[in-house]
């Protein structure tokens, strides 16, 4: 399902704010943007169109053991200031974090807030102290 006109405008505002060339949606109605350091940012409407899933997938392939994967999955939380759920998972051997945002509140400010949070969570995980526990 395609994102709503309201969400499409918020995505266009975001693209304009970072100076990227504007482009249309993919064949499935989603929008994706690749950033060298942050990863692949995607916007996809839920099946009923009531929410937009904003995901950030790492470019790095991971071959995590159970403990490492559990550690990443533990990043799932509620966004501290907006109460938006943040999910963590593994897609095509890459770590992904996603925010599920109600279409009615989806705007440029919330995109920027959530993107900053997703980037910080990825960085928090990548920069975690390496201990013997991480390798068991």
The end-to-end span amounts to 42 Å
> How many separate helices?
4
CA-atom Rg in angstroms: 15 Å
In terms of DSSP E residues, the strand content is 25-35%
SS elements, strand count: 6
User: What is the average of the pLDDT values?
Assistant: 87
Helix percentage: 25-40%
How are helices and strands ordered from N to C?
Answer: HEEEHEEEHH
Largest sheet: 6 strands, antiparallel
List low-pLDDT spans.
Answer: 129-136
Helix/sheet category:
alpha+beta
Shape: globular
Please state how the strands of the largest beta sheet are arranged side by side: 1-2-3-6-5-4
Describe what this molecule looks like in 3D.
The protein is an alpha+beta fold and 136 residues long. The chain has a six-stranded antiparallel sheet. The model is unreliable at 129-136 (pLDDT under 50). It is globular, with a radius of gyration of 15 Å. Strand 2 and strand 3 (51-57) form a beta hairpin. The longest helix has 19 residues, at 108-126. 32% of the residues lie in helices and 27% in strands. The relative contact order is 0.18. It has helices at 5-17, 66-73, 108-126, 132-135; strands spanning 31-35, 39-45, 51-57, 77-78, 85-91, 94-102.
